[in-house]
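Response to reviewer comment R2.3. The reviewers asked that we include at least one raw input/output pair. We reproduce the pair for ATP-dependent 6-phosphofructokinase here without editing.
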Amino acid sequence: MKRIAILTSGGDAPGMNAAIRAVTRKAIYEGMEVYGINYGFAGLVAGDIRKLDVPDVGDIIQRGGTVLYSARYPEFATEEGQLKGIEQLNKFGIEGLVVIGGDGSYHGALALTKRGFPAVGIPGTIDNDIPMTDYTIGFDTAINTVLDAMDKIRDTATSHVRTFIIEVMGRDAGDIALWAGVAGGADDIIIPEHDFDMAQVAQKIREGRDRGKKHCLIVLAEGVMSGHKFADELAEYGDFHARVSVLGHVVRGGAPSARDRVLASKFGGFAVDLLKNGQGGLCIGSVNNEIVANDIIETLEQKKHQPDLSLYDLNHQISF
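Raw output as returned:
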């Protein structure tokens, strides 16, 4: 391939810019032309496409968000939307596409693959919910953002002897809550992938108070329920002076960590290698610290992401 394009889609994630930079510069190094597609699949269908050169991706590796912007575009799930997208790619002479994003973005790349257009998926989502990769771009930064907030919340929780329910993003996955909860010394972690008993949560808070504990931190994944609903249900078991902190979209922002910048650079360079060799229909991942490529159809249709539930068990054992 001599001409490829990049788009970012779905929720933004710290490190996306590092991936855009890596794809662009590696492709130019290999003698290829690179085009950037603004606003994801919506921009693809609209033809919002521009050529990228080395200066266009300078000074972006440290920036959060995405310089190619992002947008939701459910219409790309239709045949009409997909055919319009391929028409635009052909119009610009683009032979392969790198799609950086999460589950929804991957399904867009999958649709192109099924229609014979070579696409490669790079996992870019704070949720860490993509199958066949241990980590996604943005996850490490996100959990460190949550951890920083937890450390601050603990100060005020201790001052007022309160229980804080910290609601974090993650869509239907509990990875952010799980990793940040363990790192932040949470008293309880509530995630979609593991059942919980509110009566046991309440009893654990009581036992901590009986020992003289001055605070209680509960990290709640948004995929279970809202923080305010959780607080209302907890109140049925007693008055625990509970407060709710919804971290929301702040978890998506900020400069990417070193780990996310390196991971994104590795993914971007590998994506170019695949397309240069004429390989499409693949999604990239990191498994046991090795960069791998898997068939995107098989990955999305037959695999499901699973969190490391050993972390859940560990937190239960050490958080009393």
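The radius of gyration is 21 Å. The chain has a mean pLDDT of 96. Further pairs are available on request from the corresponding author.
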